[in-house]
Input
Amino acid sequence: MHSYRTHTCAALRRDDVGQTVRLSGWVHRKRDHGGVLFVDLRDHYGITQIVADADSAALPVLEALRVESVVTIDGLVKARSEGTVNPGLPTGAIEVFAQGVTVQSRAEELPLPVAGEQDYPEDIRLKYRFIDLRRERVHRNIMLRSQVISSLRRRMQDQGFSEFQTPILGASSPEGARDYLVPSRLHPGTFYALPQAPQMFKQLLMVAGFDRYFQIAPCFRDEDLRADRSPEFYQLDFEMSFVTQDDVFAAIEPVLHGVFEEFAAGRTLDPLPFRRIPYAEAMLRYGSDKPDLRNPLLISDVSHHFEQSGFGIFARIVGEGGVVRAIPAPATADRSRRFFDEMNDWSRREGYAGLGYVTRKGGEFGGPVAKNHGADAMARLFDELGLGPDDGLFFAAGKAKDATRLAGAARTRVAEVLGLIEQDCFRFCWVVDFPMFEYDEERKKVDFSHNPFSMPQGELEALESRDPLDVLAWQYDIVCNGHELSSGAIRNHRPDIMYKAFEIAGYSREAVDANFSGMIEAFRLGAPPHGGSAPGIDRIVMLLADQPNIREVIAFPMNQRAQDLMMGAPSPASPQQLRELHLRLEPAAERATAAAGAAPTGRTDGIGE
Output
C-alpha cells in the first residue's frame, strides 16, 4: 500500500464499499456525537467523511487534534445509512471507518477559519494567504485560473501561434506607466527595468521573421492600484505579421469567445463577431472608452436644446463652448424627489459641481431645470430622446471632458440604483478608431493619447496634411462588462512615420533614436506590417469567477499598497547588498532601513545559482 494514500478524498463511491483504503489530507471539520466522532477529511480534490468510535484506536488521536492538522487515515469503506447520504458531496454515499491514524503535522490555533465562507479582513487573509488558499472559493478560483490559461494556450496553438519567451530584465521606456527598476551590480549606476509588457521584444520577433507569436507574459507596472489592477500581472501577449486590424480581430475573437463559453457556467455571451464601437461614439453614448453593454441606458448630447434656454446655467455653459449631456432615468415616476436629490449629492461627492435633473409623472414635468426651460421645450427634448410620460432625466453639463466623465459615471450609477444592469451574461465589444493625439491642457502641447507606436490611419500623409487632433490610429481595445481586457494596435513599422509622429508630440529625432534605438534600427533593416494585442489573464479570470477584486484570482497577490504581507516585501536591503549594488540611501531611507533591520543575505537552495 502507498505510504500516504490509495485514493484521493474525492474518489470513493458506493462501489468501493468493503475496501480497506488509505487517505491523507487536512482535518476540515470535526463533529462529536458523544462517543462517535465525524471528521471531514479534505485534500486538493474533495472531502471524505471519516468516522471513529470507541472501537477505533484512532478516536483519541483525532479527538485531540485541531482542525487543519494533516493526517493519514487507514480504514474501511462503509455505505452511509439511507437517511445520512449527502447528495451534494461526490463521496456523500460512503464514509470511512478509521482503523488507524498517523499524524503528519499538528496545526496550532488558526489565524482565520478554513471551513465556511466567512468574510475576513484582507490584511489577515493576505498575511496568511497559504491558509486562505485552502478555503473552497479561493482554491476554486486558482484552479479556474490554471484551467483558463491551459485553454488559452491550446486555442492559440490551434490558431498557428508559436509560444516564445521574452526577457524579464530589460531597458526602461520613457512611455507608459512607471517602471520597476533593478540596479545592476556589474554596471554601477545603471538599472534594468522589469517589463511593463513585452512590447518591443514581440515586435522584434516579427522583424526577425516569426509570423505568429504568443506567450503568457508576466508584466510589472508601478502604478496606483484598484480592484482590477495589480502591480504584477499576466497577459496573453500575441503579435502577428502581415495583418490588418480585421485579421487581428479574426484571430483573437474565437479564442476569447471559446474560453468564456467554456467556463461560462450557464451565463450567456455575445455571438461572434463582437460589436465594434468607434471611440468618439463610446465617449458620447456611454461616457467611457470601456462601455458596459449590460447597461441599456444611452447618453445623448442635448446641448442644442439649451442654446437659448430659460435655464441660464445651461445656456451659459453652451454659450461658452461647453456641452450638456442627458442620461435617462426610465420609469421613475414612483420614485420620490429624494432619489433625484441623492443622485445630485452623489455627483458632488465625486468632485463635480452637480447633476441636474427633470422629473416626470403622468406627463407633468418637475424640478428647476424644467421650470426654467419650459414645459413645451422640455416635451420636445423628451420626444427627441424617445422618453415616456413617467421617465426622468439627468443632466451633466460643463466642459466636454468633464461632462463626459460625469455622464458616464451617472449612467452607471442610475442603472445600478434602478436595477437595470443585465445579469449572468458577458457583453463584449471592440472600441476602435482611437485618436492618435490629444491636447495636454497642463503642459499646453499636443501629445500621444494612447500608444505612440500605433500606425496612424492614413499613415504619413495624414500626419503631414491633417490637424493632429483629427488623426485616428489603428488602435483598439476589447472590453467585457465594462472592463478593458486588452489594448492593441496595428504597429507603426516605418521609421519615417515614427519620426513624424514623435515630432508632432514634441520629440526630436535624436530623442527617438536615443530612447528607441533598438526598434528604429530594426525597422531600418526590413520590418513587416504587424499588429497584436494582449488580453489580461487576471481580468479574464476575475470575470469568469464572478469576483469583484482581481486579488481573489491571484495565488499570492499584493495588497492595495503593493505590499506582500506574507513575505514582507518590499523589505530593506542590508548595507552589504547596497555596497554590492553601488547604492547609497537618502538619510531618511537609511533610518527606516536601520529601524527595520537588515535582511538576511544567505543563499536559499535553488535560488541565485
Notes: Residues 197 and 219 are 5 Å apart (CA to CA). The first strand starts at residue 20 and ends at 32. Confidence is low (pLDDT under 50) at residues 596-609.
